[in-house]
Amino acid sequence: MSLIKSRLLDITDLQNLANEFRVMNKLSYSEPIRLKSILLKNNILTVFLPLKGGFSGMSMLLKENNETKRFILVNSEHSRGKQHFTVCHELYHLYFQDDFSYSKNNVGLFDKKNPEEYNADMFASFLLIPESGLQEMIPREERDKNKITLKTILGIEQYYACSRTALLYRLLNSKKIDKEFFTTYSTRARHSAIQFGYDTSLYIKGNEGVVIGDYGIKARELFDNGSISESSYFGLLEDMGVDLAKLESNGEESE
Q: Which of 43, 93, 161, 194 has a Cα-to-Cα distance from 35 of 20 to 30 A?
């Protein structure tokens, strides 16, 4: 996979990078991206925790002994939709930013004064909401500027599991809406989802303590080979949000 020098990239280049990442992960140019599966497949340790200061997340890339390790931290205080955008944003840093090692970000600002953050935002936008899929989901009669309906907006953000803000920026950058339309529809996303009978979990915070990756496996291996004590092992499990009371219960719960 090609690495790009630190500079403001052309929109077409960023769209191509998003498509390249999809090809690498055997995804079509239109289907939703299942982020948990992608993170597991690429062995990216990802942790969801409340972050102070409103930061969206961070990512880190370590190279040692010919091995590359990738890590993402996501703010669980943000809505699940924004968390998905954050993960896609961090994927740009981890796979495409040249000489990258660490970044702590406020995503979704689309600030051209910070080239790599803008690149990451645009990449995330294309990865999360691919162009061909977006076109397919907008009815022909709604494809003129500012003609897209709230019903269609909700359908797209539910299908691609994205936040309202991410979708509106996507439509704005594609010149399908103007700034006035953006402002009108940028609020009360959860309320409109309720009105149309959609599940609202996309619009609220969640995932606190969730760990995606081999953290638990490595902790168990360290315990089994005697590298850490039982108390240290239990401490690592608690860090993952495991309820130790259930582990210590004599009975077994049926599924």
A: 194
Q: Angle 69-71-77 (CA atoms, 0-180°, nearest 5)?
A: 175
Spatial distance between the Cα atoms of 40 and 211, rounded to a whole number of angstroms: 11
Rg (the chain; Cα; Å):
20
Please tell me what DSSP assigns to residue 121: H
Cα–Cα distance, 58 to 7 (Å, whole number): 20
pTM assigned to the model: 0.84
Token pair in block for residue 91: 């994927």
pLDDT(145) > 50: yes
Please identify which residue in the block is written with the tokens 């339309």: 181
Cα dihedral 238→82→97→13 (10° resolution): 150
CA distance 18 to 88: 9
Q: Give Cβ neighbours of residue 31 (< 8 Å, ≥ 6 apart).
A: 130, 133
Within 13 A of 107's CA, how many CA atoms are on the CB side? 34
Structure tokens at 127: 């990865």
Q: At what angle do helices 80-95 and 115-128 cross, to 10 degrees?
A: 120
Please give the Cα distance from 84 to 161 (Å, whole number). 7
Give residue-wise pLDDT tens across range 178-232: 999 999 999 999 999 999 999 999 999 999 988 888 766 665 665 676 766 767 6
